[in-house]
Amino acid sequence: MSARRQPNPVRRNSVTIPGPADVDPVSCLEYGYGLGSRAGILVLKYLAGRSLEFGENRQDFLHQLYWSPDGVLSVRCGSDAQFVGPREGFWVRRAVTHEVRAGDGQTVYRVCLRQGNADLERLRAGAVSVSTEAARLLTEIARSGVDEAVALAARDRIVGGLGVSAREFVGHHAAGAGFAMIVARALSHDPGDHTGIDEWAARLHVSAKTLQRDFVREFGMPFSRWRTSLRLRVSRALLETRSVTDVAHEIGYASASAFVAAFAKEYGYTPGTHGPRGALLGAEMGACEAFCACPHRSGAGVPQESEGVARNRVTSGPLNR
Q: Rounded to two decimals, what is the model's pTM?
């Protein structure tokens, strides 16, 4: 009797789902406007029940922005690794190799552009603030039936709503004095930082009480509770591929047991129930290839489903200009 064959990864449309066959499907929705022109925009919207990993990749023709409105992204560019929260996206200039990972249950938008603004094009790779308006417009054009002229006008405002500096981040998001937002931005990039509220306050030249009040004003909770929530959200982007002990130390817990207790209290189950079962999104994107090659195509695509992978292409306007 021949040996039983192990299930192979299923590949369709440059999206890879590792076996076994019971892994949840990945959905990738594609929305393109003005493709073929330098002012075009392509938005890929990913939905998954498990974590998503955009493996090490490089796009030589397009700048890219990764943004998740409902979770934290773990990103790496060369030896530099950091985390990016929902108020920020991860900008990658064309021809820069990078990796991105999202936690289970997240929505991730991958935006492809031929040109950004001057500040963005000077940034090789890194976190950028996503203004409230930019976030709203991005979600609005990532749906079918949007007029191309409307989407391209929104594209300009989306790019204009991306900020590189900490000052722009505070301006986009702070309801109060901005002290809590400065700290939140720094900790979202490095949640394992053990700096306490007293030291943060000293760095900002304010009292600890003032900083604490600003945290409650901005986030509805004190500093320590907000930091715990951040760390646990970050852990969800790491647990699929890292051990519980490694994740605990990465996000600032002194012991795995302390992390497990905090995680179980927050989510109602232990982090040990997570395993390395995430869905890998391959480096090569068929939609990005289409953006660059620009074969003539217009109108709304028909949803396609194949072997656990659901994909819907929606494009608007001619690809050749």
A: 0.78
